[in-house]
Amino acid sequence: MRTILILNPKGGSGKSTLATNIASYFALKGKNVTLADCDPQSSSIDWLAVRPESRDTINSSVLKKDRLDVPKGTEVLVMDTPAGITDKRLTKFLGQAQTMVMPVIASPIDMRAAERFLEGLFSLKGTVNNKIKIATVANRVREDTLVAAKLEHYLSHIKLPNGKKLPFMTMLRASQNYIHAAERGLSIFELAPSKTYYDREQWEPLLRWLNSSRSIPK
Ligand SMILES: Nc1ncnc2c1ncn2[C@@H]1O[C@H](COP(=O)(O)OP(=O)(O)O)[C@@H](O)[C@H]1O
Ligand SMILES: [Mg+2]
Asked: Closest ligand to 182 CA?
């Protein structure tokens, strides 16, 4: 089973947005997908609840006493996580996934929080790269702003404990497309291609990574 964790302890960074869009992307590819909502705010479950029946089915799963009940036959498990995750829960989440995607917003506060979080994550010896592959995504970016440039610079220069670069996948612009899609239980991949052409292009590097062995530990 392919297991993808979306995590950033900062609220509002785009975890649920990434989780639902990734789940829909794999469902559109014909995979048996389960979207696990580990957040009591249950944005992903709400999204599934309004998802039209005519669309590709995505199974749901919720955390019960820190355990996930994953439906049999699941080929891709996407895990949406809550804000404010602490160390003990973090290790649990990390232990359940091959791949982690971390969205970061272009704001100084979010960048500092990301920096602190990654420091803690990298101090978990033997985890990053050996047990789980991690990549970052800049999210809700207003292009041509100074803070967007700063975020891009920051994310493209983070070093892993082994000295290599932490993969920075892409910048996703701030777009109403994400909001319109979310309202209807859809992803941007299910909106008119003419309206979402630019957003789809921005997703390409992330999807290529998720589809490649580079995002799976050996
Ligand atoms: N790229 C984007 N463009 C526009 N709005 C976005 C984008 N990403 C997220 N949002 C919106 O920002 C809010 C927070 O995103 P969400 O995915 O719920 O974050 P989290 O799950 O990390 O708390 C939501 O209202 C969502 O629709
Ligand atoms: Mg969320």
From this structure: 1
